[in-house]
Write a structure and sequence with these properties.
- This protein is mainly alpha-helical.
- The protein has a domain of about 160 residues.
- The chain is about 75% helix and about 5% strand.
- A two-stranded antiparallel sheet has the order 1-2. A two-stranded antiparallel sheet has the order 3-4.
- The longest helix is centred in the last third of the chain and has 31 residues.
Length: about 230
């Protein structure tokens, strides 16, 4: 089975999965920003900027709130890299799925936390989840894609459209058809996250968990299709 971009089909690189993961990331950023103390959990650029701005204004308590999510993000990257080590990957059999299961389990814990739990703790846990995701899933077909940050994706998608229209590059046209839906999914996720947080409060995190569960289900569906082929 082939995928756009001329590479063998892999669920972990499929547009369907990346759309779900990117939507979940946008959702979680809106969730933590609106409902968990104004901290960005998936986009560490925002935390670094707010850290610098608030430190410049001598708002030390507010500035330091952005440090733990950044540290958790780094630890999540190390965790994902460890999962990909040959010995660990061999023991897990399916390391990419293991990374997704880890994300889901952490969000389940977030959903089960009692009311009134520290927003900072939740932001740290979700930052960890985001970094595991960004390290484990970075391709649509053979094109790079960041499931938690939009800027680079938007640039790549815009360049692909330019090359497709101006240079009549068929490969760029295929790239654009993959990248633009994924870029849009982040905005859709942020919209849903904002609405869900306003209506459901802390429990809105279960909807993001559902998106990741749907992503995990794609692996099982594709396994069955391959088995039936």
């Amino acid at each position: 089975m082939a995928q756009a971009g001329g590479v063998p089909y892999r669920t972990s690189r499929s547009l369907r999965l990346i759309v779900l993961l990117t939507m979940a990331a946008g959702f979680l950023d809106a969730y933590t920003f609106l409902g968990r103390g104004g901290v960005f959990a998936t986009a560490q650029t925002g935390n670094v900027v707010l850290l610098g701005v608030q430190a410049a204004q001598a708002q030390w308590a507010e500035a330091l709130r952005h440090v733990p999510p950044i540290i958790a993000f780094v630890i999540g990257v190390w965790t994902a890299e460890t999962i990909r080590q040959p010995r660990i990957a061999a023991a897990l059999h399916r390391p990419v799925r293991a990374a997704l299961v880890l994300e889901i389990l952490v969000l389940v814990v977030v959903g089960l936390l009692p009311p009134g739990v520290s927003d900072d703790l939740v932001a740290v846990m979700i930052a960890f989840v985001a970094s595991v995701q960004i390290t484990s899933f970075g391709l649509i077909g053979r094109w790079s894609f960041n499931t938690t940050v939009t800027t680079t994706n938007l640039r790549n998608a815009a360049q692909a459209v330019y090359s497709a229209v101006v240079r009549h590059d068929r490969d760029a046209a295929a790239q654009a058809r993959s990248l633009w839906p994924a870029v849009a999914s982040f905005a859709v996720g942020a919209l849903l996250g904002g609405l869900a947080t306003a209506h459901f409060g802390d429990q809105a995190v279960w909807l993001a968990t559902g998106l990741l569960l749907a992503g995990l289900a794609l692996f099982l569906v594709d396994d069955r299709r391959r088995g039936a082929a």
